[in-house]
């Protein structure tokens, strides 16, 4: 970092929030007065790209600085294994650390809360300790045993159970006020030697939408949440149609949820200003991914890598950053290095001093601080200066120089990965089956997806559906696919993706098998595992 160190970091994730529904990005419905005020003293990034379109892998990347294929946290193996988290590093360096969330994936069970001195998921469907201890051990045993690996999909569906219950109005009350209150209490009581790091995930804008009445009346007047489609799988499977009026109602409820989040976040911001902590606190606000409301004939945030999902809002307040807008490419995994830079913490030194485990590389152990990935550095994304280039850096560097085969050589790229889902696929098949619909083998729900995105173009590679290329500078809504043989800029994105794939383990272009029959896998489960499944309601 080129300037002075900050004492504290507040990191806020607005779960499932599209940037085009926020005031700082030009939305005019007045959903975000607090964020709009914040944007006046922050840098607003126009081209921030998430490494995946859903919560678990994105948060794992935020906490490790690694791509999903490096850290491996996904629905097939939904936990961080050997990678040291940002919170663990900061805790070892003497910072008080806390995580408050109402997202089921951000729990001790997945390893995402490792290193937080205080944490509470506010997730009411299952008790907090159901996601840690013996269950986590059972999960890892299953994944490490080839005979039991298929059973992993059974446990993953904990999330499916949880989201099904959350989809009812009676369980849909917002936990955001409690999350904000607990965050304030943590900050107020912090006595860390260095300062504090608070991570907050606000979940209101995730389906289902049941905003408080005050905000529903303002943004979706007369709309009953129980009268609109609140299950994306019904629509995506073809079992349910949604007309223009219903889409308008759904978007109104979504806006109301965002407005409620903004008000609560503004309450926290105002308190930090009033208590004199605002100036010494770096504030990062982003979304982990966006949401589709009928665009590309999809609902929710599965089965695609369109920009509504992966080009996310990102606003950062720090003395080294001007209150301005930036058009250059940013990857969310750069936030890991940015936080370390803001607090002037070296991971290896911190973990050595705190007896932490800093051994390992390539996603095994701690990710070293890299100034070329810090938003605060004058050398940001000057990857030629990276000491040990990661897969994304190598893919960009290998295309630099503008050779004849890659006409757009030298362009910067972000990379996105989406492994085949389990929960979403299970529910999609269930909804289709109930409606008597047979999903074809080439349905996009069965596809793994990877993408390379620059500010001008995107190329998406898939294993069961056709690849897609777009000129984002000419077609930002991605309505007209472009063949790379007919456009040099799209061809360059295709080539960048190929370079990335060669580093992380090859292209996802061969169709994969879907999850096997869980009943067959159960026959191989030991009695302890079966007992755990009974506790979770999967077995009689």
Automatic annotation (TrEMBL):
Residues 350-364, 474-487 have a biased composition (Acidic residues). Gene3D superfamilies: Alkaline Phosphatase, subunit A. Residues 350-371, 384-411, 465-487, 503-540 are annotated as: Disordered. Keywords: Hydrolase. Residues 7-345 form the Sulfatase N-terminal domain. Pfam families: Sulfatase. Residues 529-540 have a biased composition (Basic and acidic residues). It comes from the Archaea. GO terms for molecular function: arylsulfatase activity. PANTHER family: ARYLSULFATASE FAMILY MEMBER, ENDO-4-O-SULFATASE. Belongs to the sulfatase family. This is Sulfatase.
């Amino acid at each position: 970092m080129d300037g002075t160190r900050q004492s504290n970091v507040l990191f806020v994730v607005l779960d499932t929030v599209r940037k085009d529904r926020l005031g700082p990005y030009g939305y005019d419905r007045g959903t975000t007065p607090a964020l709009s005020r914040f944007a006046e003293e922050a840098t607003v990034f126009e081209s921030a790209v998430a490494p995946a379109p859903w919560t678990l892998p994105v948060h794992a990347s935020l906490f490790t600085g690694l791509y999903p294929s490096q850290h491996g946290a996904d629905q097939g193996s939904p936990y961080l294994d050997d990678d040291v988290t940002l919170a663990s590093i900061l805790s070892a360096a003497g910072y008080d650390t806390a995580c408050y969330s109402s997202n089921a994936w951000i729990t001790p069970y997945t390893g995402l809360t490792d290193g937080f001195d205080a944490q509470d998921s506010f997730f009411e469907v299952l008790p907090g300790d159901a996601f840690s201890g013996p269950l986590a051990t059972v999960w890892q045993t299953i994944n490490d045993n080839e005979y039991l690996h298929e059973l992993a999909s059974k446990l993953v569906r904990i999330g499916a159970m949880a989201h099904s219950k959350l989809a009812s109005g009676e369980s849909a009350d917002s936990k955001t006020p409690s999350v904000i209150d607990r965050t304030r209490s943590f900050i107020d009581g912090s006595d860390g030697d260095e300062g504090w790091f608070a991570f907050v995930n606000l979940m209101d804008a995730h389906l289902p939408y049941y905003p408080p009445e005050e905000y529903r009346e303002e943004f979706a007047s007369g709309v009953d949440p129980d009268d609109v489609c609140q299950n994306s799988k019904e629509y995506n499977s073809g079992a349910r149609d949604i007309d223009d009026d219903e889409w308008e109602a759904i978007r109104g409820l979504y806006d109301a949820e965002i407005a409620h989040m903004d008000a609560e976040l503004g309450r926290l911001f105002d308190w930090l200003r009033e208590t004199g902590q605002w100036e010494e606190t770096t504030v990062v606000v982003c979304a982990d991914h966006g949401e589709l409301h009928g665009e590309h004939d999809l609902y929710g945030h599965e089965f695609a890598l369109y920009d509504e999902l992966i080009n996310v809002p990102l606003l950062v307040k720090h003395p080294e950053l001007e209150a301005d807008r930036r058009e250059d490419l940013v990857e969310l995994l750069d936030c890991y290095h940015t936080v370390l830079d803001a607090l002037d913490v070296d991971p290896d030194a911190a973990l050595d001093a705190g007896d932490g485990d800093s051994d390992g590389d390539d996603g095994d152990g701690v990710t070293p601080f890299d100034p070329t990935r810090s938003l605060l550095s004058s050398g940001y994304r000057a990857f030629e200066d990276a000491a040990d280039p990661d897969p994304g850096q190598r893919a960009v560097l290998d295309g630099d120089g503008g050779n004849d085969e890659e006409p757009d050589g030298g362009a910067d790229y972000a990379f996105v990965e989406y492994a085949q889902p389990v929960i979403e696929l299970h529910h999609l098949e269930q909804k289709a089956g109930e409606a008597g619909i047979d999903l074809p083998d080439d349905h996009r729900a069965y596809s793994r997806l990877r993408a390379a995105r620059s500010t001008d173009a995107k190329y998406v590679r898939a294993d069961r559906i056709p690849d897609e290329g777009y000129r984002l500078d000419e077609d930002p809504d991605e309505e007209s696919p472009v063949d790379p043989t007919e456009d040099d800029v799209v061809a360059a994105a295709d080539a960048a993706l190929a370079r990335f794939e060669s580093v992380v383990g090859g292209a996802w272009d061969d169709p994969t098998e879907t999850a096997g029959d869980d009943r067959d896998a159960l026959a191989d489960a030991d009695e302890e595992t079966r007992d755990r499944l009974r506790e979770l309601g999967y077995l009689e």
